[in-house]
Design goal:
By secondary structure, this protein is of the alpha/beta class. The chain has 13 helices and 12 strands. Strands 1, 2, 3, 4, 5, 6 and 12 form a 7-stranded mixed beta sheet that branches. The chain starts with a strand and ends with a strand.
Length: 355
């Protein structure tokens, strides 16, 4: 008999590089899936690790393997410490996304470090991980994977918008879940905020003090990515090779860069939501705390009203949903939608490692 209750530790590390998100979740199935977050926290990266992860796109294969091994050990230590401090018992398994360092689905490549088989031995628990590779092998983008969780856990909202390292959206259209990345968010904002000696722009206050540089805004809004049809996804390579060079050639004050890029984010997201005509938007991810961006966005939306949920949902929604993806994989049920990724079919993705 298939279980209907699971205690899962969901783990996510995003492109904004703020740290490892861990959420201990109790999932229950009674005609529909429900969840309760018991413990959750973000364990920040050291400056050394932030730099290592930022530079990973420049590494050769041998160096990437070494980084993968080192990061797997780091992740195991973070997991073991979390389990011990919170005295977790009855844990069914761990569902870990790892950290994306390469994402080039057009070349058949995606790499999430921290998913090496030895992680199960290091944490002495069953680990479900490496959710993206199979989808790329099946012709998909390998991203985004969260939308099936949006459909199952947050169906009361017409669309779900995540503001993390990148913005991505998911919604129902003609009975299918549609999802795609919209534009960079914190990968760009945090980088320029760092030039002022802060990790991020609290509430968007620095951006609010700046002014929109229309010439830069126009150039950003005309990038080729925004003309592409979905499914489509973004990686840090896009920011490094396309976005930073466009911004840096203008030689602007940081507050003007942040103000202009915040306007760009709001323009791109509002364009998508207005086009699909949805009326209720759930916003999660660290960017949900950026009131400057959320106010800009609400002002540009023609039909939709924004909802910003409780802190656990804002901060840990992706970790929660990767926990759910792990549950679905353990049950051999579909956890990746081809309507979202462009793969040849819906499938149950991920690898299961036992200690």
């Amino acid at each position: 008999m298939i279980k209907k209750n699971y205690n899962v530790l969901g783990i996510m590390s995003g492109t904004s590089l703020d740290g490892v998100d861990l959420a201990y979740i109790h999932f229950t199935y009674t005609n529909k899936w429900q969840f309760e977050v018991i413990h959750a926290e973000t364990v920040p990266y050291t400056d050394n690790w932030v730099n290592k992860l930022k530079d990973a796109v420049t590494l050769n294969n041998k160096m990437l393997y070494e980084l993968n091994s080192e990061y797997t050990a780091l992740l195991a230590n973070v997991i073991n410490d979390f389990v011990k401090r919170n005295a977790l018992t009855g844990l069914d398994f761990i569902a870990s996304h790892g950290h994306t360092v390469l994402h080039q689905p057009e070349n058949g490549i995606t790499l999430q470090i921290g998913n090496m088989p030895q992680i199960a031995r290091l944490v002495n628990k069953t680990v479900v991980c490496d959710f993206r590779v199979q989808d790329v092998e099946m012709g998909g983008q390998g991203a985004p994977l969260v939308p099936i969780g949006d459909r199952i856990l947050f169906s009361e909202y017409e669309c779900c918008l995540n503001l993390g390292g990148f913005s991505n959206i998911s919604f129902e259209e003609d009975g299918e879940r549609i999802a795609f990345d919209i534009c960079p968010v914190n990968t760009v904002l945090n980088y320029y905020a760092g030039k002022l000696g802060v990790n991020f722009d609290q509430g968007g206050n620095i951006a609010k003090s700046g002014r929109v540089i229309n010439e830069l805004l126009d150039e950003l809004n005309n990038l080729d990515f925004y003309k592409m049809p979905y499914p489509k996804s973004l990686g840090f390579e896009f920011v490094k090779s396309v976005v930073f060079p466009v911004i840096d050639k203008y030689d602007l004050q940081v507050n003007d860069i942040l103000c202009t890029f915040s306007e760009h984010i709001a323009v791109q997201i509002a364009h998508v939501i207005n086009n699909i005509g949805k009326k209720s938007v759930l916003i999660t991810g660290g960017g949900a705390y950026n009131t400057f961006i959320t106010e800009l966005l609400q002002h540009k939306l023609k039909f939709a009203t924004i909802t910003i949920p409780d802190d656990n949902t804002i901060q840990f929604k992706e970790a929660i949903i990767f926990g759910l993806l792990g549950v679905l994989k353990i049950r051999d049920e579909i956890n990746v939608l081809c309507s979202v990724t462009g793969a040849v079919k819906n499938h149950s993705s991920g690898k299961i490692y036992h200690p």
